[in-house]
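Posted in: Structural Biology > Protein-Ligand Complexes

Title: Requesting predicted complex, zinc ion in pocket

I'd be grateful if someone could produce the 3D structure tokens for the following input. Sequence and ligand are given below.
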Amino acid sequence: MGDIQSNGWAQRTCISCGAAYQYRLGKNLFLPDELKLIPCPHCGALPLEMISAWRAYVHARMILFSLGIGLVGAYLGRMKEYPLQEATLLIIGGALLVTLGHIAALVSYTNADLAENLAQAQKLLRKGSLVLGRPGTRATPAGVPEASGSSSGSRTALGLVLLAVLGGAAPEALRLVRGWPHNPGAQPPVLGPGDTSRLYLAQTIRTFSGIWQGQVFATLLNAAELGAPERFDADTSHIGFGGSMQASSSPQNTPTTLWADITVPALETLAGKSAHLQLDLQVRYPMVAGPRSYQDTSEQLSEVFPVQLASPGAGKTYLAFWWSGLLGGCLAALLGGLQLWRAARHLTQPSHP
Ligand SMILES: [Zn+2]
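-- Reply #1 --
Done. Output follows.
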């Protein structure tokens, strides 16, 4: 039965034992009044509507959280500068939190232990925020809702939610199983013959608005040892600049990371090898010279990258696993969460024996 509210108090009759009680509605910063979980001070039973409202509330938030993780994950995945493995860790951590949140909603407020509930109610009685108006008429409470553990339906839904954790871990699991090496400075961090990866230089430059353009040459230093061509295909930023540029009244130079996209020749013999790649970059960029002027600056940079190669096409496969793991996992978490939310809203009162 719903409760009757007046003067900041809610009145309720316990369906399980027949007791009438009232409890104070308070200003809780975190939880609305509908989410006050007050067990019956006579038998300890939590009313069905309270359990239902609490679960629906938490499940709904976990659904939103899942969606947020999916969106943030996709954003980080698209943003090349962000290390893919860190995004992977974030997704796995977020998906684990979502799973724990759903589980907490299912196990935190139940009628599995009426004695424990009763102890909670007695604390409230002593504090004066709960008053037993009329004791119950039944010696043993009957028709107590949610007295047993989770249902098989909620376990299936939780399984779906848990798939998001596995989806997030899929690319790294694949990498470990296949023994593909990880290259920390590369995006994607796995690359094999035929793959293209972005390598980030350790050296940075300071340019106006982070604008720069360049030309790059990628030289394989151990080409003779690997029996591979000395040059790898490489490309870099082509952001154009020149003439007049929009700037605030006090333009500043920003630290800018340089990169080059390199493509490993599709030679099977390169699989599993260690390539010593030298990148020579000729960069041009605008550097702030005064309040209203910039200087066209040129620089020559060089850096050697030890690149550990995986099997042919490993980088593409890794990326495909990354994206399908994220999207599939997110979808599973949303479906599982929705199922839990619907189940919470449709809890049924067990009939009296
Ligand atoms: Zn009761």
